[in-house]
Amino acid sequence: MSRGPAQEAASTLPSNDGGEIGREQPRQEGSDPAKRRQIVDGARALFLERGFDSASMGEIAKRAGVSKGTLYVYFENKEQLFCAIMEEERRMHLDRLIALDPEADLRETLIAFGKALVTFILKTKTVAAMRAAIAIAERMPEVGRAFYGRGPATMIQTMAGFLDRMVERGALSIDDTRLAANQLLDLYQTGLVRPALFGLEPPPEEFDARVERVVTAAVDLFLKAHTPR
């Protein structure tokens, strides 16, 4: 059925907020940093307590102490909230962790980095976030990709860049530094991170010694394979 002049006019009548009825208005995004912080903190606590799937937007709003309408002004969905939390964690912790000094002793630098990395993963809420990302990655692959890009992929890129510099200086002999970076980062976590994903973390009194032993062995094995002869 064709639309008459009155219907056409009604579809573009001014609305109370200065827009036009019948035309999709752009989404208004929240701009109050304190309110955004309140929402992110509430969502983080609920995700860790209940898991990503079990936490609804209504429950997140309640935990954060805001209305559901206010929540949607700042975040369109749980996925966006989860990604915001991961980005914040990266800025707060991961960026400070990445301190590979090309001028320092190579072995000591790699050991210090590995210990800091494993401690970061096991002592912060990273393991819980990994569980959440893995649990929803099949159903929402974009969330899994975002988590990987903000964490593991950043670490691989940083380590590969450091190894490139060491190869240029003749300190290491590596054909594929990205592959070598992947291997070293996995070696750091051997017997520590995977068990932690299933709730099997080292006893507190053994934590430092076990991390020291695993990371040192990883670096020595890596250097044995890649030190020029």
Automatic annotation (TrEMBL):
Residues 1-36 are annotated as: Disordered. PROSITE patterns: HTH_TETR_1, HTH_TETR_2. GO terms for molecular function: DNA-binding transcription factor activity; transcription cis-regulatory region binding. Transmembrane segments: none annotated. The keyword Transcription applies. Gene3D superfamilies: Homeodomain-like (1.10.10.60), Tetracycline Repressor, domain 2 (1.10.357.10). Keywords: DNA-binding, Transcription, Transcription regulation. Residues 20-36 have a biased composition (Basic and acidic residues). Residues 33-93 form the HTH tetR-type domain. Residues 56-75 bind DNA. This is TetR/AcrR family transcriptional regulator. It comes from Alsobacter soli.
